[in-house]
Design a protein that fits this description.
This protein is mostly helical. It has two helices and no strands.
Length: 77
């Protein structure tokens, strides 16, 4: 019986190391996935803010042109 336990221990000698390496790799992959998702979300928010800023800048310019044209039409009438 003792021989069987000794043989079993010798066969499982590196199993714990492999299990720890696989677990650390899995946790690392999950961490990188979360980091990638956060970076993508940040980039989408930046793009959205730039789009809104461009829209409101263009709208302000169009409004100034419209007001200027109304003044010109009012002056010529």
């Amino acid at each position: 019986m003792n021989e069987w336990k000794d043989t079993a221990r010798k066969q499982n000698k590196g199993f714990s190391l492999i299990t720890v390496i696989i677990a650390v790799a899995f946790i690392g992959i999950l961490g990188l996935l979360v980091l990638y998702m956060a970076l993508s979300n940040f980039q989408m928010k930046i793009t959205d803010l730039k789009g809104k800023d461009s829209f409101y800048t263009a709208e302000r310019a169009i409004e100034e042109i419209r007001v200027g044209l109304q003044e010109d039409v009012g002056d010529s009438v």
